[in-house]
Specification:
With about 625 residues, the chain is mainly α. It has helices at about 40-70, 80, 90-110, 110-125, 130-140, 145-155, 165-175, 180-190, 195-215, 220-230, 235-245, 250-260, 270-280, 285-300, 305-315, 320-335, 335-350, 355-365, 370-385, 385-395, 405-425, 425-440, 445-455, 460-475, 480-490, 515-525, 530-540, 545-550, 550-565, 570-580, 585-600, 605-615, 620-630; strands spanning about 5-10, 20, 25, 35-40.
Length: about 625
């Protein structure tokens, strides 16, 4: 007989039965049949359901906490596991912090790509760490993603004062990309959150950073407002003078500085220095000469101040006086190559070829190294658009021994292609320069120098192409935007929107092994330009395909080989520093590559690469032995 089920709220207080666990019980519903009725307590059901749910939840939380504790960097507690549905946001932040900690640890182990990935994932979970942001920004700069690097540091500023070290890194990065608006916004953002101690320690420095950014951005009136609020008389004079000069108000500055000469708190050397510049720009040669004599009297003829006077005379058109001043300078301070370069390099920047050659002659007579002086001669000739003169000077540069890091080779290669493009209007010469600039590490200085030189050579179309390439790397630069519009009109071309460096797109190249097989084929065929373009496309792809992320080491090593073949040794060493992460297999592969470089009769570069290998893997005895042997006899493989 199947018992009749009866649902009740209570238990023994309502029905007399044989109750089990206070949940259910059998009772005599039909006389003579003791278990003819089954009573189920709804209250007992609720209690037991709650108890079992609590036990199950505790078990799940315990298991989850056990999994979390297996991560040595984990910060989650048992309470987080128990209250997980209510703490999902805080748990995600702690998970992000653990990812960032592992990323920072990998960064110390020189596993830069893996570290950057973990740090980025940590930020995506809501965690934050300013040291990690600095690491990620450095990696983004190396991988040619300048705008993302600036955004990474900007997002870490917040309302509280992050400290001078962090802000300095951000300001330097933003200034190198001419993103002055970001600097100004950051100064305003942190200024309101500074404590009295922060203001006392860094308030003046922060004001100077804002002034410099305002001046560079062309906000003259705002810069003057910052200068007027300065409590330091000399700082106020300097900033006001710079702002008035930038605003083409030289006559106003002359009147202001004339009054400041009567101020006992003002520094005479500072006032006279700016008075010389103001008089030159105002066209008052007589007053400029008087100010320059007084300036020299109060500075005791220090080398850097004498160079300033020589440059001012040259820019004012006083050639004879500038030559006489330079001859006197060389006679007094030509006992070291440093002092000669102190004069030659600023003069090269203003295109004073004859004065730079005078410095080079003096250095040659004294037996000094001529590499930087010859480079200054080339730069001065380019500034004057004297292309044939620059070409002849470049022949001297090509015979000079290369430095270990290959930086001078890169600079010479850029200058050589630049001069060729200025002299030769053919598409091949223009393409060679553009390709070299494209493959070089992004630098606003290189872009600016190339654009200005090509504009002086009337190569407007090539200058426009370089400008479009630069605008993709540095979209915040107002100078590049203005140059783009001006060059587009001179070139007579249709409007072309600069393409960003990184953009979401569809991968059309071969994948996996096929991609690297194609790279190997191009390297074997010495088709370096095609291989470099293929690697550049892979590096700039956003987001990176998973198979490419997994084979970052192979991609980096291929980039090293292509960079070296193209003479881009500084870039090769930079990629090598990322490639080497302490793993013995990578170090062995890099050592084999160093031996190939040595066999190509470039011992300095091979030694530099092996030195990096030894620093990253000190336990690699074979690399240590090679380093000692090559350093003692670098001419022998």
């Amino acid at each position: 007989m199947i018992p009749r089920v009866n649902f009740i709220w209570g238990a023994s207080d309502q029905i007399k039965a044989r109750w089990h666990l206070g949940w259910f019980g059998f009772y005599e519903r039909t006389p003579g049949f003791p278990e003819s009725g089954l009573a189920i307590s709804l209250r007992g059901t609720l209690v037991w359901t709650t108890v079992m749910a609590a036990v199950a939840w505790t078990g799940l939380a315990t298991g989850l906490h056990y999994v979390w504790k297996r991560d040595a960097k984990g910060r989650m507690t048992y309470q987080d596991a128990l209250l997980y549905p209510f703490r999902r946001t805080s748990v995600a932040v702690k998970q992000g912090e653990a990812l960032i900690d592992r990323g920072k640890e990998l960064w110390q182990q020189r596993k830069f790509a893996e570290a950057a990935t973990l740090i980025r994932l940590g930020f995506a979970k809501g965690a934050d760490d300013r040291e990690a942001r600095l690491h990620l920004a450095e990696f983004l700069v190396i991988t040619r993603r300048w705008p993302q690097a600036i955004i990474t540091l900007r997002d870490g500023i917040g309302r509280s004062y992050p400290g001078r070290a962090y802000l300095k890194a951000f300001f330097e990065l933003a200034a190198r990309g001419e993103d002055y608006a970001a600097i100004i916004a950051a100064c305003d953002q942190v200024g309101s959150g500074m404590s009295p101690e922060d203001v006392r320690r860094d308030g003046r420095w922060l004001g100077e950073q804002k002034f410099t950014a305002l001046l560079a951005a062309g906000h003259i009136e705002q810069a003057l407002g910052v200068a007027e609020r300065s409590f330091q008389p000399n700082t106020r004079i300097e900033q006001t003078a710079l702002a008035l000069l930038a605003g083409n108000r030289a006559k106003d500055l002359v009147n202001l500085l004339t009054r400041e000469l009567e101020n006992p708190a003002a520094e005479p050397a500072l006032v006279y220095r700016f008075l010389v510049r103001a008089c030159r720009e105002a066209g008052d040669a007589e007053k400029m000469g008087d100010a320059l004599r007084r300036f020299r009297a109060v500075t005791s003829n220090r080398p850097e101040e004498l160079v300033f006077g020589i440059a001012q005379l040259a820019m004012a058109g006083e050639t004879t006086a500038a030559e006489a001043a330079l001859a006197d300078y060389v006679f007094r301070h030509g006992s070291s190559i440093g002092n000669i370069l102190l004069a030659a390099e600023p003069l090269a920047q203003i295109g004073q070829s004859s004065l730079v050659k005078h410095c080079a002659t003096a250095a040659k007579e004294r037996g000094y190294a001529m590499d930087r002086l010859n480079n200054a001669i080339v730069e001065a000739a380019i500034r004057r658009a004297a292309w044939e003169e620059a070409k002849e000077a470049l022949k001297l540069l090509s015979t000079i021994r290369r430095s270990p890091d290959g930086s001078d080779t890169m600079a010479t290669a850029w200058l050589d292609r630049l001069v060729r493009a200025a002299l030769d209007p053919s598409e091949a010469a223009q393409r060679a320069l553009l390709e070299h600039v494209r493959q070089s590490p992004p630098s606003i200085g290189i872009y600016r120098g190339t654009i200005e030189a090509l504009t002086r050579a009337n190569r407007f179309d090539s200058a426009l192409r370089v400008c479009e390439l630069a605008a993709g790397c540095f979209p915040a630069s107002e100078w590049l935007q203005a140059q783009h519009d001006e060059l587009r009109q001179k070139a007579g071309g249709a409007p072309r929107k600069p393409e960003p460096v990184s953009k979401v797109q569809t991968w059309t190249r071969p994948k996996g092994d096929a991609f690297f097989s194609e790279i190997e084929r191009l390297i074997a065929a010495h088709e370096w330009a095609k291989a470099a373009a293929m690697l550049h496309e892979a590096r700039g792809f956003e987001p990176l395909p998973p198979w490419l992320t997994r084979r970052d080491a192979d991609l980096r090593f291929a980039q090293m080989r292509v960079d070296h073949a193209r003479g881009e040794n500084a870039a090769m060493l930079a990629h090598a520093q990322i490639y080497l992460n302490g793993e013995l297999a990578r170090s062995e592969k890099a050592l084999g590559f160093a031996r190939l470089i040595l066999a190509e009769h470039d011992p300095a570069l091979a030694i530099r690469l092996v030195e990096d290998i030894c620093r990253v893997t000190p336990q690699f005895t074979e690399a240590k032995a090679a380093f000692e042997a090559w350093r003692m006899t670098p001419h022998k493989p």
